[in-house]
Amino acid sequence: MTTPLVLTVNGQAVSVEVHPRTLLVELLRDTLRLTGTHIGCDTGQCGACTVQLDGRAVKSCTVLALQAQASEVTTIEGIATAGGELHPMQAAFKEYHALQCGFCTPGMVISALDLLKHNANPSEADVRQGLDGNLCRCTGYHNIVKAVLAAAAAMRP
Predict the structure, then answer these.
(1) Superfamily of domain 88-155
(2) What is the second-level CATH architecture of the domain 3-78?
(3) Among candidates 39, 18, 17, which has minimal Cα distance to 29?
(4) Three-state SS across 46-98?
(5) What confidence tens digit (pLDDT) does each residue in 73-119 have?
(6) How far apart are CA 130 and CA 24, in angstroms?
C-alpha cells in the first residue's frame, strides 16, 4: 500500500507514491536520486543526513517522508545557485579545507546554515555548539569551525 506525497524539493514540485514507513532520507536518495544527503548511522546520531525541512535543519533519517507532506525540503544539492556557483558556506568549506573524506560535509553545511539563520555572528564556541549533532569521523572540526566563521563573515550584510 502506498500513499501520495506532494512536496517541494530544492524548489521543484515533487509528487510521488510512498510506503507509509519510508524515511525522508530514503525518499531523497533512493527515489529522487539526491545522493548528497548521506546515510550514516540511521539513528539520528551522526547528522550526515541533515536537510532543511520548511527552513529548519532536521535529520532526515528520523523523519517519515509523509511528515514532509506539503513541505519544502532543501538538500545540499539545492543550496548552490542555479548556475552552479557554490553557496558561500560551500565555498568556505572548500577554501578552508573543511572536509577530508567529505561524508559529513553535506550535513555540516546544512547545520551551519541553520546556525547562521539564528546567529549571524557566532563565536567559535557557538559554532562548536551549533554543530554538536554532526559527527566528523576524520576529526576535521578545526577547519570546519574556521570555515563556518569565514562564511558567517562573508554572508553578513
Answers:
(1) [2Fe-2S]-binding domain (1.10.150.120)
(2) Roll (3.10)
(3) 39
(4) CCCCEEEECCEEEEHHHCEHHHHCCCEEECHHHCCCCCCCCCHHHHHHHHCCC
(5) 999 999 998 888 999 999 999 999 998 888 999 999 999 999 999 99
(6) 23
